[in-house]
Amino acid sequence: MSELAAANAADAPMRLALPVYTSEPDFNRLRVAVKRWLREGYDRWEASDLATLRMLKALGVSDITADWTLYAFNSSALAALAELGVSRFVASPENGRENLQYLAESGYDVEFLVQQSTPLFVSLHEPAGETGLPVFRRGGLWVTTKPVPRTFEAPSGTSTRIDLSWDPPCGA
C-alpha cells in the first residue's frame, strides 16, 4: 500500500476503510500501518473481511463498520457480526427492496448504498479473454464491473452512501 486518499468534509470524522484483499506477505505491513494510524488518532475503521475485522479487534478498536463485502444481508448476519464487535453495517448491494426495508427496521445501525460500481468479478489474475466490460487493476487485483454504476433506492430516512471505491479509472 503506497497511498490512501480520502475526501472528507472538514467537520466530519474520518473512517478509514481497509482493503478487500491483502496478500499474506503484505498483511503484517498492513497491521503496522494500522497501528501507526491508531497512534495518530484514527479510531474509526471499516473492515472488509473477517481477517481485518479480527485484526482491528485485536488492536483494541471499538468503532468498526462492516463493509458490504462482509455480507450484511440479514438479521442473522448482523447479529453474528455484532458479536464480533461491529457496530455499523453497510447493506449488501444484493439486497432486494423488501429485505432493505427489513434491515432498516431491524434496530441495527445500517447504512444503505445508493450508488456503486459493484464488482462482477475480483481476481488475482487478469481475465483470459475480452469481457466487453471495464476491467482494471486495483490494489493487486483484477476488477470487472459494469460500464455504468448501479443505483439503489434506500429506505426512507436511512443513512446512505455513495461508494466510489470500485469505480473504474478514467479510460478503463
Describe the structure.
Strands 1, 2, 3, 4, 5, 9 and 10 form a 7-stranded mixed β-sheet that branches. Strands 6-8-7 form a 3-stranded antiparallel β-sheet, with no helix packed on it. The chain is globular. The model is unreliable at 1-5 (pLDDT under 50). The protein is of the alpha/beta class and 172 residues long. The chain has one domain (16-163). It has helices spanning 24-39, 50-58, 75-83, 97-104, and strands at 16-17, 44-47, 63-66, 88-90, 110-116, 121-123, 135-138, 141-144, 150-151, 159-163. Helix content is 24%, strand content 22%.
Number of extended strands: 10
Strand content: 15-25%
- Rg result: 17 Å
Number of helices, counting only DSSP H or I runs of 4 residues or more:
4
The end-to-end span amounts to: 21 Å
Q: Helix- and strand-based class? A: alpha/beta
Order of helices and strands: EHEHEHEHEEEEEE
Percent range for helical residues?
A: 10-25%
- Quote the average pLDDT: 88
Q: What is the total domain count? A: 1
- Overall, the morphology is globular
User: Spans with pLDDT under 50 lasting ≥5 residues?
Assistant: 1-5
Largest sheet, in brief, is: 7 strands, mixed
